[in-house]
Amino acid sequence: MEYRRMGKTGLQLSVLSFGSWVTFANQVDDGASDKLMSIAYDHGVNFFDNAEAYSNGESEKMMGRVLAKKNWERSSYCVSSKVFFGWHGKENKPNQRGLSRKHIMEACQEALQRLQVDYLDMFFCHRPDRETPMEEIVWSMNILIQQGKIFYWGTSEWSAAEIMEAHMCAKELGQIGPAMEQPQYNLFERQRVERDYYTIFRNVGMGTTIWSPLASGLLSGKYNNGIPEGSRLSLESYAWLKDKAYTEDRLQSIRNLGKVAKDMGTTLATLSIAWCISNPNVTTAILGATKEQQLLENLKALDVYPKITEGIKKEIDEIMGTKPGEP
Ligand code: NDP
Q1: What confidence tens digit (pLDDT) does each residue in 16-67 have?
Q2: How many CB atoms lie under 10 A from the CB of residue 195?
Q3: CA distances from 133 to 21, 95, 122, 136, 138 (A)
């Protein structure tokens, strides 16, 4: 495994990590989640990602049961949660979502209980909350750091301007600003990581824990000839995702990308993840998997990414047509 420093912090994260969105307490049970986390850990993965909203809190409970059972040394891994969406789904009452101090403090406490840990290594603001003053968000995260309940705080899907506002606010208050952002990054979604955040990487330093490296599995090529039964895009409750992700244009690009993978002697899934971590501004790519075989295939990205030359990158850019234009 390779470990990268998270932005300007001293924290080192495995360049491939493991998350539970959609899968835990939905597609996989306790036995399968135990197996998947164990494979990840045994391959050197040291970061497990979660959020209050995943399966309405049940995903954190499942991960907590695995962590308790495994009893790995707490200092050997990092675990995260995210606050914003609440865990009651449509039943959320006004203060059960968002980034008010009340919800941030309560969400952290509840995540600790569900995950059965004494502290979170990372705590993300899952989305920006334009109704809550930035000072309140920065203060709340700093209180949690002071209380020893979280070590690093970060953002997810915040614009570059919002991240900079948080940094300026923290500086004014003499406090700690966000250390990492969790953006979507894959061969279809490149704008934020490759363009919008450029000055933040350069001027402030920021780690990224990127999500959906396979665009929900699309980039594995499994959807090239239709939607396989039991796959994420076949799930009724995620029909909105299918409507967004599953387009003929995308499928055609993926079919064409297959040639590059074949020439390199690898698979589409491995190549797509390898491409993500070939960007040095990516601290870690969070993998998702419902089956052991998928996870093992995805972990091979570690061997493939050093083989992605500038020439291959160019070929991929031409096939995908998603490289952001110059600013
Ligand atoms: P991916 O884009 O990699 O999708 C993972 C899914 O694709 C798997 O669950 C599986 O679904 C399928 N898959 C994975 N590997 C293979 C393979 N080798 N061959 C075929 N199919 C495969 O990542 P996720 O979208 O799951 O995101 C990863 C993590 O990022 C999440 O768990 C979560 O922790 C985080 N995240 C954060 C968000 C945020 O807003 N901050 C938003 C979304 C995710 P199946 O078997 O069902 O088809």
Answers
A1: 999 999 999 999 999 999 999 999 999 999 999 999 999 999 999 999 999 9
A2: 15
A3: 28, 15, 22, 5, 9
Helices within the chain (DSSP H only): 30-42, 58-70, 101-115, 134-146, 160-173, 191, 198-203, 239-245, 248-264, 268-277, 292-299, 301-304, 310-320
Q: Give ligand 1 pocket residues (Cβ under 6 A).
A: 19-21, 23, 27, 49, 156-157, 182, 211-217, 220, 222, 231-232, 269, 286-290, 294, 297-298
d(CA 280, CA 129): 29
Q: Which amino acid is at 91?
A: E
Would the pTM count as exceeding 0.85?
Answer: yes
Task: Return the closest-CA partner of residue 81 out of 34, 117, 29, 36.
Answer: 117
Tell me how crowded residue 149 is: count the other CB atoms within 10 A of its CB: 18
- Superfamily classification of domain 3-320: NADP-dependent oxidoreductase domain (3.20.20.100)
Q: How many CB atoms lie within 10 A of CB 3?
A: 15
State phi, psi for 94 to the nearest 5 degrees.
-50, -45
Domain boundaries, the chain: 3-320
